[in-house]
Amino acid sequence: MGTKKAIVLSGDNHYTAQITTTIKSIVYHLRRVKIYLINSDIPQEYFFNLNLRLKQLDSELVDLKINPELFSNAESPKAHISKITYGRLMIPQLVTEDRALYIDSDAIVDQSISELWTMDLGDYPIAAVHDVFLADIFNAGIILFNNKKLREDPDLVDNMLAAAQQKGILDADQTVLNQFFNHQYLELGLEYNYVIGYDRDVSLAPRNAPGYFEKMLNCPQPKIIHYASPDKPWNLQSAGRMREKWWQYHNLDWVTITQHGQLPQLTKPVKGKFFTLTASDSMIHLAKLAQALPDYEFHVAAFSLVSPTLLNYMRFHNVHVYASISKPRVEELMHDCTAYLDINRETKYQDWIERFAKNGRPVYSFASDAAALSDQVHQEIFADDDYQKMVQRIQKNG
């Protein structure tokens, strides 16, 4: 049957929920895998429990404990990155297989990637994906290590660890790996490291990443989705795309994984979805509408951070609030929604509302603060003190 496919993860004990989600996504799409977990503080019980489940999938999880003192003098990574990330520099030394795929633990596998173990690496020491932002580096979040080639240099790991002690390293081990392999790696397609999380930053400063959205939108179906920025899907809120995809794998039960059943749905079927783009936390009758229309979803978004007042509406199961939202995410939500609720006070995003309504979808407003829209928009305005009429109209229109 051949050897198992070697995959390497790294992380700390506080990151086990994310690590488990990554593992679930891997074994949902692959069988016969040997997953090495580089760590310094994850309890034995964690490995014991997961190995009971992975054994049924002809797979296993290996506890690769390393001494954190090895990286004590290394440059501290960014706030959302742990120093354990330097552990991947030791993969040629720690992992016995001739080929090993490193995957960051803030990534998920969304399709079979078995071809990575059969593709011709030639004389390349690694394979990686070109960084979507910087023209002259690869992103180190997903790397295919050609260990057989790398072991030809017996001093390589020691030299990389020494390089990690340099001052001024901007991106931790990614900087080190690029110092050693920047001009000698096999370039993989973007689908193998589909970086999510920077949409809003690029929306605000597109000159910093020319062609970013074109590259992302033209990418084939992503095979590995990498939530690389601090805008993580497990935060209370995240502005980027594909948040739901991460939670689908997080919520997967092991029976479904074993049977390769359908990924879990995160919401129940609804009769309609409403969208509101706001710069204010003052909403007219949102709580009453959410309670009166439990079979409908309310999506409220802001380009800025939002106040606790607006976040408090998330106590209703059918209200979703999006802070610091990116423009592509706004486009996605607008595409999915059936009506626009013009129920926020103060600033109105009239251009966005007009775009939403151009194909005949209705806009529902309250009289005291209705947006002034063109005659081409199907806008219905209701008295502030009669939200029930809006509810009735929505129910009638379906």
UniProtKB/TrEMBL annotation:
SUPFAM superfamilies: Nucleotide-diphospho-sugar transferases (SSF53448)
Keywords of this entry: Glycosyltransferase, Metal-binding, Transferase
UniProt-listed InterPro entries: Glyco_trans_8, Glycosyltrans_8_dom-fam, Nucleotide-diphossugar_trans
Listed GO MF terms: glycosyltransferase activity; metal ion binding
The keyword Oxidoreductase is annotated on this UniProt entry: no
Keyword Glycosyltransferase (UniProt): yes
Domain of life: Bacteria
PANTHER family registered for this protein in UniProt: GLYCOSYLTRANSFERASE 8 DOMAIN-CONTAINING PROTEIN, LIPOPOLYSACCHARIDE 1,3-GALACTOSYLTRANSFERASE
Annotated protein name in UniProt: Glycosyltransferase, family 8
Organism taxonomic ancestry: Bacteria, Bacillati, Bacillota, Bacilli, Lactobacillales
